[in-house]
Amino acid sequence: MAINVTPIPGLDPAVNAIRRRTADFINAEILPNEEALWGRRQPMGQTEDEREHSRRQSIELREDVKAKVNEAGLWAPHLPTEYGGMGLDFLELAYMYEILAYAVGAASLFGIAAPNSGNASVLVKYGTEAQKKQWLLPLIEGEMESGFSMTEPDHAGSDPRSITTEAVRDGDEWVINGHKWFTSNGIDANFFIVMCRANDPSGELGQPGRMTQIIVPADAKGVNILRGIGVFGHSTSDHCEIVYDNVRVPIENTLGLVGQGHQAAQDRLGAGRVYHCMNSVGQMWRAFDLMVERSLTREVHGGLLKDKQFIQGFIAESYLDVQSARLMTINAAEKVAADDPDVRTAISAIKVFVPAAYHRVVDRAIQVWGGAGVSNDLPLGQMYLAARVLRLADGPDEVHKILMAKNILHRYEDGVSWNFGT
Length: 422
Ligand SMILES: Cc1cc2nc3c(=O)[nH]c(=O)nc-3n(C[C@H](O)[C@H](O)[C@H](O)COP(=O)(O)OP(=O)(O)OC[C@H]3O[C@@H](n4cnc5c(N)ncnc54)[C@H](O)[C@@H]3O)c2cc1C
Hints:
Shape: globular
Mean pLDDT: 95
Order of helices and strands: HHHHHHEEEEEEEEHEEHHHHH
Radius of gyration: 23 Å
Number of strands: 10
Helix content: 40-55%
Bound molecules: flavin-adenine dinucleotide
Largest sheet: 8 strands, mixed
Strand content: 5-15%
Low-confidence stretches: none
Distance between the termini: 36 Å
Number of helices: 12
Number of domains: 3
CATH superfamily of the largest domain: Butyryl-CoA Dehydrogenase, subunit A, domain 3
């Protein structure tokens, strides 16, 4: 079923235009071809050659779609125009992500693939001209892959202050030692942006222990990828456990200033959380459509699912979830765009509410589809796992609830009540 997008009254015409163009593209080029694009069905009895042939066809089709995305001027919406992107502002991008996410997995066909897209944005903002030439341009051209290496197995990822990976200056080089895990895209990455505590014995680069991001080539001596961590029952994945053992890189690989690492990560995660939530809303929208569509045609126990009150309850509850998640996320996005003082509370609120609502909606859609709901014939199983991960990644629920409560309590302690009218 096509996504139903019409202009939103009162919204900037430029944003409505982006929504329209994105919806037209995914309705025409992606949704009708999903099965062929991702090779979801693998018929029994195929020879190795036949499997290879259909794999190649999928790759060719994806390349064709990417060329059409480029022609339509929809490539790399997250990047400035001077780097071949669309140069969208924050709200345009957030609204575009919602529509794009409806076609699950399609973002990569528009030049947006985590963690490369986040790394590219950080390089645009903090990179030197030399770093941009060496790392950013090949990343954008698709000649390189990258990873973001922050979380450590022995310290709480939900408390970034606990990071211990250390970069000690030795002349013109950093010497990096540390143990990371869940570095996504680690298998294919040509370089990692590694979050370290920097220590310059000369004192030239500031106080020791300041959080700093350093670019580390994946083939540098001492970068030891121990494994792709198996997740959700799979024996392996591209989320890698990596030991950095006396890895030497030039001081010029410092991304931004020594001590700016935490801010750079916040830039990435803060705005990123709004984008993740808009993506989640787009996927909830898809799950909702799939659920309602199925209820109209599936007969069980002498009647259509749509006529069973349990299922009507699922539809009504899911409407409440999609609508409230969407409006909260748009409100948070508007606060980001307006630099509103309550923006951190709004972002934490959506980071808690939206993944949970997304999880509930997908769960109901799976239930309505029965066995087909968890099969690879539909995108629901993939969405379900993604929704579960979102509840702990980029700050688990509990951390965001604590932040919200603190901000709210401070307001009342100052003698002012919360203003819900913003
Ligand atoms: C699929 C996947 C991909 C990932 N990709 C990357 C990546 O590319 N790069 C990267 O650096 N990391 C990545 N991560 C790691 C992710 O960011 C961390 O798992 C997340 O930040 C949580 O950190 P942790 O696992 O150390 O959990 P912990 O910090 O050990 O927290 C465990 C739990 O403790 C609870 N908790 C935490 N604080 C409090 C509190 N104050 N009060 C009460 N309860 C609390 C929460 O329920 C939390 O889930 C990925 C993770 C997954 C699952």
